Fold each of these.
Amino acid sequence: MSRPEDTLPPDLFYNDTESRKYTTSSRIQTIQATMTHRALSLLHLTTPSLILDIGCGSGLSGEILSLPSSSGTPGGPHTWIGLDISSSMLSIALEKDVTGDLFLADAGQGVPFRPGTFDAALSISAIQWLCNAETSEESPEGRLKRFFGGLYASLRRGGRAVCQFYPKNDAQKRMVSAAAVKAGFGAGLLEDDPGTKNAKTYLVLTVGGGELDG
Amino acid sequence: MKLLTLNFLTCAIKSCKTSPASFPLHPRDAELEIVEADVNLAFLQNILPRLMWAELRTIASELGLPTLPEDIPEREALVEGRGEGEGEGEGGEQIPSQTAKDLHRVLLETCIQEGKLVCGNCGHEYAVKEGVANFLLPGHLV
Ligand SMILES: [Zn+2]
């Protein structure tokens, strides 16, 4: 199976047809929902929070963030802001009338919010795209540096981020977590179902200096 | 885009990061829409200390909205008084005050649907279409 990251940049890969395929596939929706709940459990939120969703796509995770705690979203309903590089994906989010604010943005260019904005951030199946450098003036290292540096600054002290991603190999896994640590995060990699085809990698990031009370 | 979001958004261009003039971004040719939503008192209480109130007032006036109070509301003012057992919902839940509802209206229901956001430092314009802001930068500005 070829990895979409290896064929085209995400704004080209997720064209209208691919975006719709991704969003309407019930298998993908179920996997995405499971991973969002897993990420939420790792964020330890206890109160309605302001959350950044990196690579929000058509808002599959956002719809879960907007649910009340009685519907299984810890601390919810949350208010979220989503970034995505694919305008086709964002169009589907608009059609679905998601409640989060959407940005057409490339996380590899940074995170344009003032320091301490977010209580938490999550990213589902997106940050492996940062390891692609599409032009000669960009390197994966530079993109990861801008992303994690911007993310670190935009989180409040004591905040957390959880990024589920599909690393291509161990070297890429190491490169991504090293970039997060370099930006100032406390970082841990967590693997669900390791060694199987359902293996899921979660990068759990903490910002020191505040109380971890959610 | 909610005015809440605009209260946290900065210019994306690297050389603007250190300039105070890059926040807040200024709406231009903005079309506003009210998108109703449930009041989330706990969220308002959480976000209140992080608001930049003077900048929110500036933006409200630039958009021609009613003038906001000079001072940011106190956290206590967001909750309805509890005299005579009133203002307390089932299970002792807190009831949002008029102040909380007004704040909710401005921050979470007042949305920029179309227009531009302009950086006060570099003059870069970010287009907003159907409420979605375009923050993709050309390579040389990253
Ligand atoms: Zn600027």
Amino acid sequence: MSNNVTDPQPILFFCWLGMGMISLLASIAWLIIEPGLLTGAFMRPEVIAWVHLVALGWLCSLYFAAGYQLIPVVTLRPLASRWMSRIHLVFHGIAFPAMVIGFFTSRYIWVGIGGSIVYLGFWLFTLNSLFSSGLNSTWNRTSVPWFLGLFWLVAGGTLAVVATFYRINPQTQINFFNVLGLHVHTMLVGFFFTILISAASKLVPMFLLSPEKDQWGTWISSLTSTLILFLAYTFADNSITNKLLTCLMLIALLAHFGQMLFFILKKRKKLDPGMLTFFLANLLLLPAWWCFCKYHSNPAEQEHMIRAGVFIMLFLVFNGCILGMAQKIVPFMFWHHIYAKHLGKAILPVTHELLTSWTLWPIAIGFTLSASTFCIALSTESDFLFRPAAVILLVSYFFVVANGPKLIRHWKTPDIKPFPKPQP
Amino acid sequence: MKELRNQVEEVLSELIDPEAGVDVITLGLLESVALHGTTVSIEMVPTTPGCPLLHSMSEAAHHMLAPHFQGMTIDLQWRLDIEWTPDRMTN
């Protein structure tokens, strides 16, 4: 049984990561410069541009970076097509900034062209994932949400292309706001939430040493979120269905929380700041759900609630998850690169020893403080509070970066000690 | 056979899982040890099926076991069909 199926493409990985980091910095800087972005009407060009900068620039880039690295590891097969992965990077790298600029300047022809190319990239990634898995991989609690997420990514992208072409040619016979609403919900519930379930089902038990089986919560949450979207597509106009959908969404969330609680109760490793940040970020799904409930109860008067919900889910939940998991995944990747070949031949540091310990709690505390301040600012519609909240989030990321010197030191001079000689 | 298993356990108790910070024996990764002629057949269970360390762990185990079983072949297989659970840990 060969397990040596790694297919690293470091340039591809660092290009995606670089694009993501630039987008993250730009999105936080934008909030600091213009805190009013998160108040007032939702459908303003700059708000839509900012949302796509975060969603496509930061979250999707990081997702694709991780995806192209992890697919060969998880499926134990090499990536189906390297050239498809490279074309995808070029497509996304050129088209997504054009799309964001197009939104910002209200030039919908740019959005149409850029969006179509980004959409083609989604197909390239999806097909590459499917072919890499051999289409006959085990259907388990990680792969099912993963492929459901990919399905909804393509579906959400299709809706976005349709909506954009309506803006370019308003004679098109579609209900623009219904298509737009479905696009937002497909991406948030179908793609981002399902991918979060898939990642949590794999990573949390791995890092907490909890049992991987008995993942009923993962199954319920991923299948319920799928049911929600099928119902939403079928009854897009029905307000009664919206109440049903929000109830079903609560079931999906509670199942997800139940699963996380099960992992915590059965863990064999103690909770560290990274995992605490991850779980706290997951809990923020609840206020996001509440915002969507408020919006659906009276869309005309509660329009600001959809903005708050999208912001909490897209920005706070996912940044918290990334800040938490980065403390586990980044040192592991460095360890694997530096020390894996020496395993069994010498005494090596363990992964958490590659981190600078004094930075870990400030990351967790910084995120908690920032998320609380953002939530207060959103509920009070206070421009004043958005700026410090964004600054604190930026500082949390600086604490992540502060781990860089120690990681580089390990890279340059690995800490390898010989095994002690056995006593005669 | 028990003696062989004890010998393998003693050697592999020096093999540390870098993420868990404990050795593979304490983690309960060793499933079975058997002797078939001059081949020492070892079966291990990964903590997670898609573990990126499987190849490194296999190489490390071979490297550590080889001096103790000179003139013998070591055949190490990962049992991906068995799910690891925390109950397998010895403490």
